[in-house]
Amino acid sequence: TTVYITKDIGFRVPQQGLTELEETLTVSVNTPNGIIPATAVQYPQPIGFFLQMPQLSYNPAAGSRPTEMKISFQSNTVFERHEVISLYLASFASTYYHTGHIVNVEPFCKLGKALWRNGHLKITLGHGIPL
Predict the structure, then answer these.
(1) What CA–CA distance (Å, rounded) separates 85 from 122?
(2) How many angstroms separate the CA atoms of 69 and 92, rounded?
């Protein structure tokens, strides 16, 4: 079954967009044979700034130990010099408080300056590296 909703109805997607892992979109059907309960829509067409939900991973994945951390997301924009990526990680800690460290930002081959302060990791993008 396919339902086509034409634009002349005035239907709009959310202003902030949708990611491919949107959990609030569901479909239910009331049929003569019974009700089909609300079921999540799998992989809606992503629109907006984040096309893929941000993902956070660590190595080693162990509490209270120093770890490498990777933040991944897919965006509909290219990041330029001096733009800032902010992460709010309230329960995390760092040995280097208020100290900037150089980090790699892929796939743009850019370097960023990471600064940790009060549960907030701020990464300011710098120059690209010629390949």
Answers:
(1) 6
(2) 11
Burial of 46 (0-12, 13-18, 19+ CB in 10 A): middle
Quick one: pLDDT at residue 35?
92
How far apart are the C-alpha atoms of 109 and 111, rounded to whole Å?
7
Looking at mean pLDDT, say which of 18-27, 34-43, 76-85, 119-128 comes out highest: 34-43
Q: Are 20 and 46 in contact (CB under 8 A)?
A: yes
Question: For residue 21, which of 49, 65, 51 has the smallest C-alpha distance?
Answer: 51
C-alpha–C-alpha distance, residues 17 and 93, integer Å = 32
d(CA 74, CA 62): 26
pLDDT in tens, 51-60: 777 888 888 8
Inter-residue contact 45 to 14 (CB < 8 Å): no
CA angle 27, 56, 62 (to 5 degrees): 125
